[in-house]
Amino acid sequence: MSESRVRRPRRFLVCEPRHFAVQYAINPWMNPDRPVDVDLAQEQWQALIGAYRAHGHTVESVEPVPGLPDMVFSANAAFVVDGRVFGSLFHAAERRPESVHYDTWFKAAGYDVHRPESVSEGEGDLVWTGRYVLAGTGFRTTREAHREAQEFLGHPVIGLTLVDPYFYHLDTALFVLDDDNVCYYPEAFSAGSREVLRRLFPDAVLATREDAMAFGLNSVSDGRNVFIAPRAEALAGALADHGYVPVPVDLSEFHKAGGGIKCCTQEIR
Ligand code: ARG
């Protein structure tokens, strides 16, 4: 069945974890008293970049800035569809200075950046399905930003409410497999949002809390290969049963900051 799954080459934007650290706590995963091993983080991150390139994807990077330890989570910096860049306004004061550095990269690459007026954390909460945008709210990105994104992008934006603080960004609870399907952890969503997801994706691959806590939903799919945390074993098995090819990449050091594979990856479309 995996013969029928088709990989589409992607263009990814990343940021090297040279200055990665956990210096403040803005989500339940973060504990500044628990040190991160920056050398191990670098190794893990290089393995992710290597896996993307080995599967034919293009990877470009933004220069990391000292004093911005979460800048490695490039997914949060913008949401790009049709070459339109919907920039970010971070919820936490500690992360707000990241935006200008990403905006500089986008401008140099030939893109105009729309700066949202309301809190919006890029692909952390805005997820492109191929036809419309799924947009998370509850912890970071606001409803007002959903409205702004729809107005700017001209694509329908469907709001989903997150209810579990461990899954504070939509990309920790759901990822897109291909143009037809998604994978998610239902309990991360409000009852109404769960019903919306059921109606939109009746054949979705559902994950358990264990998979979600292992950052299994913070995955990147190219339509065939799914770059996924190795501890999300049950989920990797379910994906294989559906014809996808799990590619395990361990970013355990980044879990200490509440991030994983998808958080370290922004797609430019
Ligand atoms: N420490 C970062 C924060 O709390 C982690 C961001 C993870 N990124 C993501 N796309 N979920 O903002």
TrEMBL record:
<feature type="active site" description="Nucleophile">
    <location>
        <position position="263"/>
    </location>
</feature>
<feature type="active site" description="Proton donor">
    <location>
        <position position="169"/>
    </location>
</feature>
<keyword id="KW-0378">Hydrolase</keyword>
<dbReference type="GO" id="GO:0006525">
    <property type="term" value="P:arginine metabolic process"/>
</dbReference>
<comment type="similarity">
    <text>Belongs to the DDAH family.</text>
</comment>
<dbReference type="GO" id="GO:0016597">
    <property type="term" value="F:amino acid binding"/>
</dbReference>
<protein>
    <submittedName>
        <fullName>Amidinotransferase</fullName>
    </submittedName>
</protein>
<dbReference type="Pfam" id="PF19420">
    <property type="entry name" value="DDAH_eukar"/>
</dbReference>
<dbReference type="GO" id="GO:0016403">
    <property type="term" value="F:dimethylargininase activity"/>
</dbReference>
<dbReference type="GO" id="GO:0000052">
    <property type="term" value="P:citrulline metabolic process"/>
</dbReference>
<dbReference type="InterPro" id="IPR033199">
    <property type="entry name" value="DDAH-like"/>
</dbReference>
<dbReference type="GO" id="GO:0045429">
    <property type="term" value="P:positive regulation of nitric oxide biosynthetic process"/>
</dbReference>
